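Hi everyone, sorry if this is the wrong subforum. Our group has a chain we'd like a structural model of before ordering constructs, and none of us has done structure prediction before. Sequence below.
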Amino acid sequence: MGDETPSPPFETARRTPKGETVTSQIKRGVSLYSFQNETFQGKMDLEDCIRTCAELGARGIEIIGEQTFWGWPEVGVEDAAIENWHRLIKQYDCVPVSHDYMLD
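Answer:
Right subforum, don't worry. Here is the predicted structure as tokens:
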């Protein structure tokens, strides 16, 4: 994936009431919360999640700290885990767009 050209934003077209065609490009993103069951059950790791998002053309990634980094926020996160996150984002030509957290 890293050497391929990134997929373009999703393009949509619609007609206005006057019959004019209006197009827009929607950039897609995914919350890693979407993969909570797969990551909890050990079926997917962080790279699997980011790669899948990129393959679907969803380049914006919302991270969930508790789900992605073991021990966060109670014991902190190892620098290597953060470096791996940034490496994967770059490798799959994605963009970190948000950090969310669970309040339960």
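For your construct planning: Residues 26 and 87 are 25 Å apart (CA to CA). Confidence is low (pLDDT under 50) at residues 1-6.
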